[in-house]
Amino acid sequence: MSFTIRPARPAEYTELGRLTVEAYRGSDQIAEGSGYEAVLADCASRAADADLLAAVDDTTGVVLGGVTFCLAGSPYAELARDGEAEFRMLAVAPAAQGRGVGAALVRECLVRAAAAGAHAVVLCTHDGNGPARRLYERAGFTRDPERDWSPVPGFDLVALRRPASAPAGAR
C-alpha cells in the first residue's frame, strides 16, 4: 500500500472525523457520556487550531488515517510543556490497520517536532489500548507517569514521551 502523509483538506474533514470516531470506538478509547465523539469528529476546529494531518492512499485518494499535531500552548495541547510538541487523536481506518499507516503518522509528527525545535514529543493513550502502546513504544516513547491523568473518573490515560529528534529514515 502506497500512501502520502499531508495536511488534511477541508473536503476530507467529514471522512477523517468519521474514521477517527470509528477507530476510537473500536479500541474502547471513548468514555461513555464524555461527549468526546463530537471533538474527534470536528476536524475543522482541529485544523484551525493545530496541524491536522491525513494519510491518503496514493492510488484511490481514500483517507486512511490522521493525527492532530500541536506545540505547547496550542488549544489542543493537553500535556506538552514549553519546548515540547504533542500529538493527539491518531486514528487509522480499521481496513488500513496493520499496514504502517499509524507508524508513518507518528514519524511525521516526530519530523515536525524536530523541525519546530521541540526537544520532546508527548502523547497520552487509554491505559487499555495495547496496540497503540506497542506502536508508540516501537517508536521510542516511554512512560511519563507523572503526567498520567483521567479526563473523566474511571477512564485512565497514560502519558508517553520521547526526544523529538527525527527518526532514522524520516524524509
TrEMBL record:
InterPro entries: Acyl_CoA_acyltransferase, Bact_Acetyltransf, GNAT_dom. Keywords: Acyltransferase, Transferase. PROSITE patterns: GNAT (PS51186). CDD domains: NAT_SF (cd04301). The keyword Nucleotide-binding does not apply. Gene3D superfamilies: 3.40.630.30. One of its GO terms (molecular function) is acyltransferase activity, transferring groups other than amino-acyl groups. Transmembrane segments: none annotated. Residues 3-162 form the N-acetyltransferase domain. This is N-acetyltransferase. It comes from Actinocatenispora rupis.
